[in-house]
Amino acid sequence: MLIGELAERAGTSARTLRYYEEQGLVRPRRDAHGYRQYDDAELKVVHEIRSLLAVGFGLDDIKPFVACLRATGSGHVCPDSVAVLRRKLAEVDGYLAELTDVRRQLHHQLTQALEHRENPCL
């Protein structure tokens, strides 16, 4: 398939696919006229990229998943992918701890404000 068809099937743009190619994530073949040609395996790669981007991974983080997908048919089973998943999970856990602390502080401030207000509000 040509780049336009891949873009349409993957729900992205040709420009984005060219960017993924520049980053070494997508590998088109070139036909005799120099046009990019993609097979269904590349569609699977683009879906993997987009699903990982959607949950907050950066393109550098995605590279091990793409390599694993090409090698095994699953992007999440290789040691490098597992390491990235562990690192990302630890990062998310850190964010959750920070948000929990912020929520606790806000709740305390709200409680204090409600207990000590002089003029009741609606």
From TrEMBL:
Q: Could you tell me which CDD domains the record lists for this protein?
A: HTH_MerR-like_sg3
Q: Which domain of life is it from?
A: Bacteria
Q: Residues in domain HTH merR-type? A: 1-68
Q: Which UniProt keywords apply?
A: DNA-binding, Transcription, Transcription regulation
DNA-binding keyword on record: yes
Q: Which InterPro entries match?
A: DNA-bd_dom_put_sf, MerR-type_HTH_dom, MerR_fam
Q: Name one Pfam family in it.
A: MerR_1
Which residues belong to the signal peptide in this entry?
Answer: none
* SUPFAM superfamilies hit by this protein: Putative DNA-binding domain (SSF46955)
PANTHER family of this UniProt entry?
Answer: HEAVY METAL-DEPENDENT TRANSCRIPTIONAL REGULATOR HI_0293-RELATED, REDOX-CYCLING DRUG-SENSING TRANSCRIPTIONAL ACTIVATOR SOXR
Q: What is this protein called?
A: MerR family transcriptional regulator
Species source reads: Paractinoplanes globisporus
